[in-house]
Design brief:
By secondary structure, the protein is α+β, with helices and mostly antiparallel strands. 45% of the residues lie in helices and 15% in strands. It has a single domain, classed as NADH Oxidase (3-Layer(aba) Sandwich), CATH 3.40.109.10. Strands 1, 2, 3, 4 and 5 form a 5-stranded antiparallel beta sheet that branches. The termini are far apart.
């Protein structure tokens, strides 16, 4: 599949029903390249990524994510983590509390667009039970899981999303 960048952005949708078919290893590598290519404050890249394929771990992540079934149905789940102290080393508290989260959000969006461009589906699941998920995944105290991104071949065709429209949410200041 070959989508223009604009077409990819405008047609991407959250996919909550995924087939269990495996994802090609070369596509996983491409998606990792999408993640690491995200912009970050000072180019500090304050993130780390996990790829969860273990069914037992996916089932536990599902439980810790308010039973979002797509987590255990997907052939793999990317876990996008922030490493706040990497940002704090240069930017202090604003790096620790804000920039590292903005940077990981940019990485997640890159991942979602890459997933769509390759013909897969995914959904962004924000991490709420942060410490429990960190423990489940064996993360150290310095690493914050921010998002779970289940990825696989779509098993649904979502209808286009109704948007508020940029004219209603944008002001031009001159």
């Amino acid at each position: 599949m070959s989508l223009s960048a604009i077409e990819c952005i405008l047609t991407r949708r959250s996919i909550r029903a995924l087939r269990p078919d495996p994802i090609r290893p070369e596509d996983v590598e491409t998606l990792l390249g999408c993640l690491e290519s995200a912009p970050s404050a000072g180019n500090l890249q304050p993130w780390s990524f996990l790829i969860v394929k273990s069914q037992a771990l996916k089932e536990e992540l599902c439980r810790l994510s308010f039973d979002q079934q797509v987590v255990k149905q997907a052939p793999l789940v990317f876990v996008v983590c922030a490493v706040p102290e990497q940002s704090a080393a240069q930017y202090g508290d604003v790096g620790r509390n804000l920039f590292c989260l903005q940077d990981t959000a940019a990485a997640v969006q890159n991942l979602l667009l890459g997933v769509h461009a390759l013909g897969y589906g995914a959904v962004w699941i924000g991490v709420v039970r942060e410490r429990e998920i960190a423990t489940c995944l064996g993360l150290d105290e310095a690493t914050r899981p921010v998002a779970l991104i289940p990825v696989g071949l779509p098993d649904e065709t979502p209808k286009p999303m109704e948007r508020r429209g940029w004219r209603t949410i944008t002001r031009t200041l001159e």
